[in-house]
Q: What sequence folds into this?
């Protein structure tokens, strides 16, 4: 940094001295560093424990829309928070998701689920459609520790919830069993009916009359 000293002579200001001072960058204090490390550690734990997650650009969402979004995410057991790009970058790298670093620009929020892997994508994509492009968009995501393309995320977002999928799968599994049970029941009922009475034996033919002598 340059420091100039002036003097007044004959009604004019003149530079009387020039000093060059070395300015050292201000280092964050220990408390701030500790807080940032704690945030990164919590994000890393959240990412590693998640079945899936998405990174979102939320720059156009209103307070009312954000409130409704968070309520629906909570109903689906999805953890959602706004994150700083610099901090979440460290967490992503430590969690083995470094490929997502390239989408960390602008505003960023993170939605993850430790249970239903479809829930974050389904709910966030629903709001992205409602709010329109440029207001609320999915930037990237992952599932089971693997980074997904946007095409894969959008395809998964159209799937029903985990509970619905489980019910559908159970229905498919039970369908053959149900059909077999119906058939066996029909056979049992048929076999249990009283047997039809046998037709009466035909009467013996009458004895022939004796021939005339």
A:
């Amino acid at each position: 940094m340059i420091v100039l000293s002036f003097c007044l002579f004959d009604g004019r200001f003149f530079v009387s001295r020039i000093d060059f001072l070395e300015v050292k960058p201000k280092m964050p204090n220990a408390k701030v560093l500790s807080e940032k490390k704690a945030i990164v550690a919590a994000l890393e734990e959240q990412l590693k424990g998640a079945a899936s997650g998405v990174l979102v650009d939320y720059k156009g969402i209103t307070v009312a829309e954000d409130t409704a979004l968070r309520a629906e995410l909570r109903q689906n057991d999805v953890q959602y928070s706004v994150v700083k790009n610099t901090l979440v970058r460290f967490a992503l790298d430590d969690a083995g998701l470094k490929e997502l670093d390239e989408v960390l620009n602008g505003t960023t929020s993170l939605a993850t689920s430790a249970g239903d892997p479809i829930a974050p994508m389904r709910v966030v994509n629903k709001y992205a459609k409602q709010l329109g492009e440029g207001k609320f968009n999915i930037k990237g995501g992952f599932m089971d520790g693997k980074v997904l393309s946007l095409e894969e995320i959008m395809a998964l977002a159209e799937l029903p919830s985990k509970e619905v999928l489980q019910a559908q799968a159970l229905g498919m599994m039970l369908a053959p069993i149900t059909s077999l049970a119906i058939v066996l029941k029909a056979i049992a009922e048929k076999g249990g009916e009283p047997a039809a009475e046998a037709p009466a034996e035909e009467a013996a033919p009458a004895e022939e009359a004796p021939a005339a002598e």
The CA atoms of residues 78 and 113 lie 5 Å apart.
